[in-house]
Sequence to fold (71 residues):
Amino acid sequence: MKLPLGYRYAATYAGIRKNKKDDLGLIVFRYAGVCRCRFHANRVQAAPVRIARFNLEQSRGLVSAVLINAG
Fold:
């Protein structure tokens, strides 16, 4: 599989899932880029959702990495 140039990738098993397969991934960009997100409109939101929304507002939508969990 060919991956795009200008990015660094990593994955590991973090114990999020029960089966011992990679369940946490990180993509780091060479340069910060614009991130577009759509957050759910529920009244009750988990702390990570509120933190992500706050951080995106503070950075004006620029990100230099994305952390993904599979769980």
